[in-house]
Amino acid sequence: MKVFYSDTYTVRLPEGHRFPMSKYELLRQAVESAGLVPPGDLRPARPATDEEILRAHDRDYLERLMAGQLTVKEIRRIGLPWSPELVTRARHAVGGTIAACRAALEDGLAVNLAGGTHHAFRDHGQGFCLLNDVVIAARAMVDEGRARQVLSVDCDVHQGNGTAAMAQGDGSILTFSIHSESNFPLFKEQSDLDLALPDGTDDEGYLAALDSGLAEILACMRGELAVYLAGADPFEKDRLGKLALTKDGLARRDRLVLERCCEAGLAVAVVMGGGYSPQVEDIVDIHLQTVRAAAEMARCWPVPGGGQN
Fold first, then answer.
1. 51-102: per-residue pLDDT in tens?
2. Cβ-proximal residues to 7 (8 Å cutoff; 6+ apart), any chain
3. Quick one: which of 285, 163, 157 has its CA closest to 226?
4. Beta-carbon-side half-sphere exposure of residue 307 (alpha carbons within 13 Å)
């Protein structure tokens, strides 16, 4: 199983900022230390090209984003101070998801240790998201003739509003979001399937809803690839969450998504999504659980086109 990372691009945020930028480097180190994949399969991501990004985003927005010409309002909506390093990281995170999708379609399963920037819209960023890696990667796979349809399985605690909006009217992208009903964003978009959960939903309530939702959305799937956004923010201690899943519940979530997609014959690219616990170690632990589950399942995942890994 190939794992892609982009944590060599340092982004400095103001002290006390809510976004835990350090989680990326810590997660890569944890994956290395745990020996979850051979060293040759832990690979740096290349940056997404303009051509790839423009499959999903407006040229005017991309050009202003690259040049640091966003308005104060636009930067406030993103929630991160603009810097060249931030843009570089965003490009590499998108490149990691594209690479993970290609690798998944070759091997059955792959991981990007970043990505899941599902609040980015066609013409603006939002909620710590500059570029929508899932939509960009999905359109790359379709345009390259690698997939007919791509499913976004979004288990971040926040609705994947940007992904839903950008995929509306695009039959090549199917969207499923299971999220906190009362959480950000205030105004939700329309996914192909939305499951909005009440505050305090626990492991059992969440997993029952997820299993039912997966059965419904997978019955509609006519393609070859799923992108799984495995957010760490449904965790009970998350500052921006409102759900009450334990680490064990989140590990069971990961296995459920991967098992159902495997049973449906889909390749899966896993991306990390959000996580905002006060202790960054909790975020890293949860993301590492996700990578571990993928690595364990990759050993017996059917290779696209027949055969076993």
1. 999 999 999 999 999 999 999 999 999 999 999 999 999 999 999 999 999 9
2. 24, 25, 27, 28, 113, 114
3. 163
4. 7
Whole-angstrom Cα distance, residue 230 to residue 227?
9
Which pLDDT does position 302 carry in this prediction? 86
Residues of the chain with pLDDT under 70: 7-9, 305-309
HEC readout, the chain: CEEEECCCCCCCCCCCCCCCCCHHHHHHHHHHHHCCCCHHHEEECCCCCHHHHCCCCCHHHHHHHHHCCCCHHHHHHHCCCCCHHHHHHHHHHHHHHHHHHHHHHHHCEEEECCCCCCCCCCCCCECCECCCHHHHHHHHHHHCCCCCCEEEEECCCCCCHHHHHHHCCCCCEEEEEEEECCCCCCCCCCCCEEEEECCCCCHHHHHHHHHHHHHHHHCCCCCCEEEEECCCCCECCCCCCCCCECHHHHHHHHHHHHHHHHHCCCEEEEECCCCCCCCHHHHHHHHHHHHHHHHHHHCCCECCCCCEC
pLDDT of residue 306: 58
Confidence (pTM):
0.96
Residue 44: burial class (beta carbons within 10 Å; 0-12, 13-18, 19+): middle
Find the angle CA(208)-CA(210)-CA(212) to the nearest 5 degrees: 70
Structure confidence at residue 161 (pLDDT)? 98
